[in-house]
Amino acid sequence: MNRKIFFISIMMMICIFCYYANPFITLVAVLMAGAMIFVLCIMGLDYFKNNFNLFLLIIISLLVAISLYEIRVMNFHKINEYEANQKITGIITGVEKDGLVLSRVNISGCKFNQKLYVKLDFSSVPICIEADNNAFRSTLIKFANELTNSVWIIDSEQRKQLHIAAVFACNFVNHLYSLSERLIAEKKIDFTILHPLMQATVNKAINNSPQIVQTGPAKRNDKNTIEKHLGLLSSQPDLKMIYEILTNSIKKFHNYKG
Is-above-0.90 flag for pTM? Predict the structure, then answer.
């Protein structure tokens, strides 16, 4: 009985270490448990038969210890940006060079009480600041500068306009990429053939004013090409309508008529 109490006490200590200790101590604790099982094994089959319940207790305790460690790792793991496409929310309680410390964490709908370190590259992400007094604005700017090199003073009206512009620059553009991919897939052409063109277009728009680097049949007012394209899209009225709307928008923007 004393031996059983001894083993039970050891395994309880291992469980406690696995949950609260650092990974190194946890590893030592698990190795200790493995060593105990090994000792039991080499003591012979008869000992195993006579102490089956004790042996089973040690196995279960070891599994519990490992499970507790896995939970600890999950709660304190450094999560990389966009890892597994999980949505992470929480209250910022600390700021470090390459990430944030969050409390009251919610990961894809699952809530955790433990603090979580989230590794993010904020260095080029714009942070927009709005405050009703200079002191609070200065505090926010100081805090934002710890996260990024792109800090902007944006009021509520500007923020609304910025959101609309972002929809045009990102969401609509990505949808057009999707339509392009579907179009060429119909002719069994791999979408990667357009990647260099897409990358060059984005680079030109970033390094110059987009209106200066606009190209294409609408910009040239190339009516023959436009008519050919519309003819090819005659069986896809939705795409034809989008093509016409964007073509007319480009022509109007660059002062072409007809």
Answer: no
- Say how far apart CA 105 and CA 116 lie, in whole Å: 7
What would the two tokens of residue 66 be?
Answer: 């490992």
What is the 3-state secondary structure of 136-198? HHHHHHHHHHCCCCCEEECCHHHHHHHHHHHHHHHHHHHHHHHHHHHHHHCCCCCHHHHHHHH
Pairing relationship of beta strands 99-107 and 88-96 according to DSSP bridges: antiparallel
What are the tens digits of pLDDT across the range 19-36? 555 555 556 556 666 666
| β-bridge mates for residue 89, sequence order | 106
pLDDT tens digits along 174-213: 999 999 999 999 999 999 999 999 999 999 999 999 999 9
Those residues with Cβ within 8 angstroms of residue 257's Cβ, 6 or more apart along the chain or in another chain = 251
- Residues 6 or more apart from 81 whose CB is under 8 A from it? 119, 120, 121
Cβ neighbours of residue 244 closer than 8 Å, sequence gap 6 or more:
230
Q: Are 54 and 7 in contact (CB under 8 A)?
A: yes
> Is residue 151 a contact partner of residue 144, using CB atoms and an 8 Å limit?
yes
Alpha carbon distance 188, 182 (integer Å): 10
CATH architecture of 156-253: Orthogonal Bundle (1.10)
As a whole number of angstroms, the distance between CA 74 and CA 80 comes to 13
